[in-house]
């Protein structure tokens, strides 16, 4: 048999084995693991063979280690280790495998060219359904940049301490994609230079880089970074220092004699312009833009980390302006930060004094027009009688560590309302509560909700937790998943909010026990122009997958009619009722009952 056919045959057998792989822990099969590990290197080792050969590696692994696939398949993973690899870590790996245990550790490994990197490694035992063989799945994450920063911070804190020569030896100075200095070196040079004498740094970020990677592939992405790095270098002057400090981010330290007030912005504009011409690789060509944030010292502050934070704040604004722009950090950015702190303090007070309100917006059964339940929406009354909208303070509560306090307040108020309402109503109704990612990451969240439901004596099936779809791609997905599963076990419903506006995919819908999908208002608005493609698709998907579907932001009779045609189950929007104070609900209901026949004629 020719060699290539042999290889193909072997690959097929391996794929077949992998499909059958049963993995310990929350992810039970290999396909699922692969889907969840977009950025991780994945390896599979056959430990039934005394040599422990690699039988599978994914592309990320090859990118991290810079090997070719046929150089590593069949090899023992020892080739990743070298002089700097900790003996103790090797030993721990050996004994974990001997005892068929999972293991997480960070270990010094080596790329093909001998460059060191910190491999943050998870080893998970697996076995095959079909064969008796045993395997280990390895997940690799290149943590070099993070650890370098960590060490630098320790170094900055204790500037008198001399890092030992071994430590210095391990830190390589350049970034292997662009050949520029790396993050560590940039911070080190900045610290050595000091921020007491006038100067400035620029942070340069390639706009939409992840799109470029997704659309054109990583090879092209690397090419863009390399070209961008060159162009930035050419746009600078002799003596300016440029480094690549994150995936798609470059930093520049302007040379000491720079007249910052007059030159920093002009240099930044030149850098941003220099990136603009098309970049090509083979047949592929694309244009990119870059955003630049500038921070000056010492007038805007001193200390390397403070200056970098200032530049990040400026960059963030440049990004918010749609990219391609240059923003100089201003002291009023700091003032705005202070303002956020002030709002957080006031919010804490308002919560303590129970001045925060939870308003209720009705949700309606589309077929009958009957009341189905309410969505709880938080409101902050102001002295002038107006309300501060949740969009203005929920993100601040999240940033400032107040979201648990706010979130549990909303839950308790909502439960008070619904148990009171249902004790008088002929037909019990449900309540839907918005929960942010920070709350869902708390391992105790589901248990707490369940306990409160018990305390109020509410039927758990009448409680819905609304999650935005971006929660499902969170870093701490396992904790979030456990909370969702726990809620599900107890009968609490879960709705996926703003569906179609974020990153969730059909596979998320399949994988998570989600009961309802909420169609975002932006898609309901499109119904007005006869554009029902997205609503139709979501309703079809929901039906196929056996999930409920709620359209939100319904404002007109035309939208209602279109949703009726499409077979949507529930609706919510100003057409039926705006969010209202709990005390106003009885009056609203009386009114609604009167209008209902006309709306649902
Ligand atoms: P959301 O969950 O998508 O809530 C729906 C938003 O649309 C609400 O805005 C609601 O007042 C508004 N809305 C409802 N029907 C209509 C309509 O027919 N037309 C128009 N133009 N708007 C409509 P709101 O109350 O300002 O809430 C904004 C967001 O704040 C919510 O979006 C939710 O993500 C968040 N939020 C609200 N309350 C809470 C809370 O208690 N906890 C958390 N974590 N987030 C909350
Ligand atoms: Ca919601
Ligand atoms: Ca929504």
Layout: helices, strands, pairs:
Layout: H1 3-19, E1 21-23, H2 30-36, E2 41-46, E3 54-57, H3 59-65, H4 69-72, H5 87-98, E4 103-110, E5 116-128, E6 134-142, H6 144-157, H7 165-170, E7 181-182, H8 183-193, E8 199-206, H9 209-216, H10 218-235, E9 241-246, E10 249-253, H11 260-275, E11 279-281, E12 284-286, E13 290-297, H12 304-320, E14 326-328, H13 331-352, E15 357-365, E16 371-381, E17 387-388, H14 390-399, H15 403-424, E18 430-434, H16 437-440, H17 445-456, E19 463-468, H18 477-489, E20 493-499, H19 506-511, E21 516-519, H20 521-526, H21 533-544, E22 548-552, H22 557-566, E23 570-572, H23 585-599
Parallel strand pairs: 7-9, 13-14, 16-18, 18-19, 19-20, 20-21, 21-22, 22-23
Antiparallel strand pairs: 1-5, 2-3, 2-6, 4-5, 5-6, 8-10, 8-13, 9-10, 11-12, 15-16, 15-23, 16-17
Helix pairs in contact: 6-8, 9-10, 10-11, 15-17, 17-18
Bound molecules: ligand C2E and calcium ion (2 copies).
Can you put this structure into words, describing what you see?
The protein is of the alpha/beta class. The longest helix is centred in the middle third of the chain and has 22 residues, at 331-352. Bound molecules: ligand C2E and calcium ion (2 copies). Ligand C2E binds next to strand 16, helix 14 and strand 20.
Number of strands: 23
Separate helix tally: 23
Q: Roughly how much helix do the residues carry, as a percent range?
A: 40-55%
Determine the structural class based on helices, strands and strand pairing. alpha/beta
Query: What small molecules does this complex bind?
Result: ligand C2E, calcium ion
What overall form do the CA principal axes indicate? globular
Instruction: Walk across the major sheet and give the strand order.
Output: 15-16-18-19-20-21-22-23
| Most strands sheet | 8 strands, mixed, barrel
Estimated radius of gyration? 28 Å
Cα separation of the termini = 74 Å
